[in-house]
Amino acid sequence: MIRTMTGEIVSTKTPHMVVVSVVRIWRHPVYKKAVRKAKRFAAHNDTLELVVGDRVVIAETKPMSKTIHFKVVSKL
């Protein structure tokens, strides 16, 4: 099963790569407050014209380099 996530692009400075921030919301077990946690993933992008702020879907793939383990599937 391929893991997919939805996030927002925060950097496009490197050619063929974008940095995507994925936010997940979970409920604290003791205080019952909704907590937002964000994690940044480097994703490979070869064909789509993307800019900072775009929402994209990324999918897990085999490692392409030291930091890139995801690829951009589509733009939302």
TrEMBL record:
<dbReference type="Pfam" id="PF00366">
    <property type="entry name" value="Ribosomal_S17"/>
</dbReference>
<dbReference type="GO" id="GO:0022627">
    <property type="term" value="C:cytosolic small ribosomal subunit"/>
</dbReference>
<dbReference type="InterPro" id="IPR012340">
    <property type="entry name" value="NA-bd_OB-fold"/>
</dbReference>
<dbReference type="InterPro" id="IPR000266">
    <property type="entry name" value="Ribosomal_uS17"/>
</dbReference>
<keyword id="KW-0687">Ribonucleoprotein</keyword>
<keyword id="KW-0689">Ribosomal protein</keyword>
<comment type="similarity">
    <text>Belongs to the universal ribosomal protein uS17 family.</text>
</comment>
<dbReference type="GO" id="GO:0006412">
    <property type="term" value="P:translation"/>
</dbReference>
<protein>
    <submittedName>
        <fullName>30S ribosomal protein S17</fullName>
    </submittedName>
</protein>
<dbReference type="GO" id="GO:0003735">
    <property type="term" value="F:structural constituent of ribosome"/>
</dbReference>
